[in-house]
Design brief:
Structural class: mainly alpha
Cofactor: heme b; Ca(2+)
Active site: 66
Bound molecules: protoporphyrin IX containing FE, 2-acetamido-2-deoxy-beta-D-glucopyranose
CATH topology of the largest domain: Peroxidase, domain 1
CATH architecture of the largest domain: Orthogonal Bundle
Number of domains: 2
Radius of gyration: 21 Å
Function: Removal of H(2)O(2), oxidation of toxic reductants, biosynthesis and degradation of lignin, suberization, auxin catabolism, response to environmental stresses such as wounding, pathogen attack and oxidative stress.
Domain Plant heme peroxidase family profile: 25-326
Shape: globular
Binding site for Ca(2+) 2: 194, 246, 249, 254
Largest sheet: 2 strands, antiparallel
CATH class of the largest domain: Mainly Alpha
Order of helices and strands: HHHHHEHHEHHEHHHHE
Distance between the termini: 45 Å
Length: 329
């Protein structure tokens, strides 16, 4: 009897903990009394930054995704360490645009003026992402809040945990499934490639070395698009040269990404495969035909991104500065 009671208590404790880690601690009115104008303050900072450079939009969205995939949505990707072995220092992260980091740092500064010491950098990043999406024509959605900032940021945790541009659908599913994303989530989230840039090196093999065959071009490319890309990205191209992920509406968050895939205008293997693989093709066709359906699915999926491994006061903190832990570690 005594032992059984012990088991019961352990089970109850486990339930309590698991409900925290799945993000049930989050709520949309979390800062209602401590920082009532939070969303406005963050969106104003994002707007200001977009006015300086449109790269802000994709940079913030991508930063949010990368941060959440590694140790959860806890702003661990923002940590800068003198030892240069934080998440942001990983080779996978090399291409995260500095403007994403800068946006969060600036928004935090404004938030601290209005409501000092209460709002996490993780929540500011989640809000900034939703502002960037809305300001570029995407869906408006309510952001669940109450995340704490993480206490762990390690480059070594990144490798192998982010999807790669050459992944086929099985590999993409493997990475997303680990975090509980469905195939519809995966396809909807990939729609974030409706904005932003991509460096030539990420798809050069599709143009010049398809399947390891020198001179071969991926036949799933639209030939006209492949020719345009060869001009923008010649074989001797510099490492800083990048092209738009969505060649038609690169700074508008719309469903053209999906019509592009149908026409062979997907830039990365991981983009085009969503159409060429018959398992995901119907979802691509659905989103290409119906932007509302894409937006609805995207809002569900980005909500899941934001609730990955949420930290609490027990395993996180409210950082004073987004790029460093409060206490020296
Ligand atoms: C499905 C698997 C994914 C793969 C393989 C992938 C890969 C990539 C690659 C290789 C780039 C180009 C980076 C560069 O050369 O600078 C990129 C850019 C980008 N990705 Fe993804 N990504 C994926 C999913 C996502 C998701 C889920 C999001 C957000 C919800 C996202 C948001 C972005 C954005 C906004 C950019 C443009 C960044 C910029 O212009 O600064 N990606 N992605
Ligand atoms: C946008 O930038 C211009 C100068 O480039 C400036 O005059 C204007 O006030 C800015 N708008 C906002 C909302 O910051
Ligand atoms: C598009 O999707 C929305 C949301 O799922 C749905 O309500 C609407 O009926 C769809 N429109 C068409 C034309 O199928
Ligand atoms: C934006 C940013 O901080 N990028 C960093 C990613 O990692 C490399 C090192 O691998 C750094 O040099 C970059 O500054």
């Amino acid at each position: 009897m005594e032992a059984r009671r012990g088991t019961l208590i352990i089970i109850l404790v486990l339930i309590a903990f698991s409900s925290v880690s799945t993000g049930e601690a989050l709520s949309s009115d979390y800062y209602q009394s401590t920082c009532p104008n939070l969303r406005q303050i963050v969106c104003d900072a994002v707007k200001k930054k977009i006015n300086e450079t449109a790269v802000t939009i994709p940079a913030v969205i991508r930063l949010f995704f990368h941060d959440a995939m590694i140790t959860g949505a806890d702003a661990s990707a923002l940590i800068a360490l003198p030892t240069e072995d934080a998440e942001k220092d990983s080779s996978d992260n090399k291409s995260l645009a500095g403007d994403g980091f800068d946006t969060v740092i600036r928004a935090k500064k404004e938030v601290e003026k209005a409501c000092p010491g209460v709002v996490s950098c993780a929540d500011i990043l989640a809000l900034a992402t939703s502002c960037a999406i809305e300001l570029s024509g995407g869906p408006s959605y309510t952001v669940e809040l109450g995340r704490y900032d993480g206490l762990i940021s390690k480059a070594s945790l990144v490798d192998g945990n982010l999807p790669g541009p050459n992944f086929d659908l099985d590999k993409l599913i493997a990475v997303f499934d680990k975090h509980g994303f469905t195939l519809v989530d995966l396809v909807a989230l990939s729609g974030a490639h409706t904005v932003g840039f991509c460096h030539c090196s990420r798809f050069a093999d599709r143009l010049y070395n398809y399947n390891g065959q020198l001179g071969a071009t991926d036949p799933t490319f639209n030939p006209e698009f492949a020719n345009q890309l060869k001009q923008a990205c010649p074989t001797n191209v510099g490492p800083t040269i990048a092209v738009n992920l969505d060649p038609f509406t690169p700074i508008t968050f719309d469903n053209l990404y999906f019509s592009n895939l149908i026409k062979g205008y997907g830039l990365l293997t991981s983009d085009e495969v969503l159409y060429t693989d018959t398992r995901s093709r119907p979802i691509v066709q659905w989103f290409a035909a119906n932007q509302t359906a894409f937006f609805e699915a995207f809002v569900v999926a980005i909500g899941k991104v934001g609730s990955l491994d949420v930290k609490t006061s027990a395993d996180g903190e409210i950082r004073k500065e987004c790029t460093s832990y409060n206490k020296k570690q």
